[in-house]
Design brief:
CATH topology of the largest domain: Methane Monooxygenase Hydroxylase, Chain G, domain 1
Largest sheet: 5 strands, antiparallel
CATH class of the largest domain: Mainly Alpha
Order of helices and strands: EEEEHEHHHHH
CATH superfamily of the largest domain: CarD-like, C-terminal domain
Strand content: 15-25%
Helix content: 40-55%
Number of domains: 2
Number of strands: 5
Mean pLDDT: 91
Number of helices: 6
Low-confidence stretches: none
Radius of gyration: 17 Å
Distance between the termini: 39 Å
Strand order of the largest sheet: 4-3-2-1-5
Structural class: alpha+beta
Shape: globular
Length: about 160
Amino acid sequence: MFRVGDKVVHPIHGAGIIEAIEEREVLGRLREYYILRLPLDNMKVMIPVESEEIVGLREVIEDREVEQVIRILKEKRKVNNTNWNRRYRANLEKMHSGNIYQVAEVVGSLTWREKEKGLSAGERRMLESARQILVSELVLARNAEKQQVESWLEKLLA
């Protein structure tokens, strides 16, 4: 169980800080909820405490683990010529895993593909979403500002 003040990652919404744990009645059922504040979007998300594993809530990586993210982002990739639909589903599965390294793979491969061949509208949206999730976690892992992380990521992917 997480505590107030813990830095966690929601696989879909990105990284945030648990602001409170509250008991609320939703649809006639009383449950405990994590109130997660997402600093980049200034948004709050309620997650049932009992569903944290199902949702895939996990702790933000530590600063020393950022080096592995950097290695993944720097990897040279071949342009994958598979059907865009298969590629899209595989990348979506990686993103929903909640694993920062798989999200970094999606960012790296889609950025590479964008430079080499261009992206479909759906893949462009996916890249933006994956980058946002990655940036949100790196901001909390590095205790940095959003602009600093985005600038650093741009240089890394250039």
